[in-house]
Each structure stands twice: as structure tokens, then as C-alpha cells.
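Researcher: Next sequence.
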Amino acid sequence: MVIIEDDAVAIRPLRPEETPLLEDFLLEAVYVPEDFTGQVPRSVIYEDPKCRAHFEGFGTLPDDRALVAEVNGRVVGACWVRTTEGYGHLDASTPAFSISLYREYRGRGIGTRLLRRMLQELREDGYARASLGVAKANRAVRLYERMGFRIVGDGVDETEWLMVCDLQDAPAGPR
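Model: Next structure:
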């Protein structure tokens, strides 16, 4: 178990040279049932065009933005948005979220801080809403609901929810 003091976690923008980390964090974001004991093959993020849309060419689109959580100089989580045709896509003007942490850093409020900060930045930049796709069985659904996201229907299939956050209504909270 990793013990983290609140002030030991730095939330900051992703640096251009860190963009390849988004592939690692996308693989971490792939929902795996708790009873799964194998390892998700890295190829899953490259073979699925909806997965690739979350990282390919990141930084080249006007809506691309990313934050990372850093603990003791190590990036341990990322939260990023794009308006591509990836999972969680609603429309061309709504940024879709991707967020994940390395497993040993989950459950400590870091993801909440990343999510809250990104929602605040989107709100300040005038976005009306944000979206995300999440496996229906994923416990993170409750976090997203607490942060102001609501289920609007199925995502890409019946195993996934499409959730939307109206940014004027989302809890702002501290950055």
C-alpha cells in the first residue's frame, strides 16, 4: 500500500514530452472485472480505433488538454479530454474524458482531484458540457455521479454508460 500525504500530490498540465504516458494510462483505464486474474494485452489499445482516438496525435487538436498527478516526482495518474470519436464521444463540441491512475494509487482521492480540476478548467474556458464512457460495472460510476455527471444512455454498446456533465451545474470544489 502506498501512503500519500495530501500535499505530496501535485496536479499539473501534461508536458509535451510526456504525451506517450497517455497510452499507459489508457491501458490502465481499460475496465477489468475484480475477479480477472490475467493481464490485459497492450494490443487492445492499438487495435481498437476508439481506443486509439484517445491518444493518437494528442496535442494537435484545439480541444486537447491533459493533467497529470505526480507523487514524489513520478506521474501516477492522468486525466485528459479530446473531441475525437473515442469512447464517451457525444458530439464535436463536447470534450470526452479519459482518466486513470496506477492501481496502487487508486482510492486515495487523487482521481477526484484530477477530475475536479479538469472540470473547472473546462468550465472556465466556456465549455457547456463534458462526456465520458464507463463500463456499467465500474465502481467509478459513483464518483462520476458525485462530480455532476449523469447517465444519458448506453455508450458504444450495452455494457457501457454514456455520461454527461453540464459544466454550469457541476460541483466546483477546490482546485
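Model: The CA atoms of residues 58 and 148 lie 26 Å apart. Helices lie at 21-29, 43-47, 49-52, 110-124, 140-146.
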